[in-house]
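**User:** My hope is that you can spare some time for a protein that puzzles me. I have put the entry right below:
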Amino acid sequence: MDVQIDEKIKQKILEPGLFKVVFLNDDLTPMDFVIECLVGIFKHTDTTARDLTVKIHEEGSAIVGVYTFEIAEQKATEVTNEARNLGYPLKVQLQEDK
């Protein structure tokens, strides 16, 4: 007796979720340092970096990039480490992009 099994498995592939990297304003981190990070780590142009820095200063925070979790986390860690090495209290948050 032969038994035939006809199984169909549907695979659903999910795209990885995206995360916003948000810089928070403080009164101690120099604007030049923030601009350097935005250009060096986030690859913004000088003009965009300056505009974002002003937005962070005036509005209290700004989204500086949207990436997959691993990349967002890496960039946030890189900025935080750089800031702490120089004695700056710059805060960076990750927020899920919904």
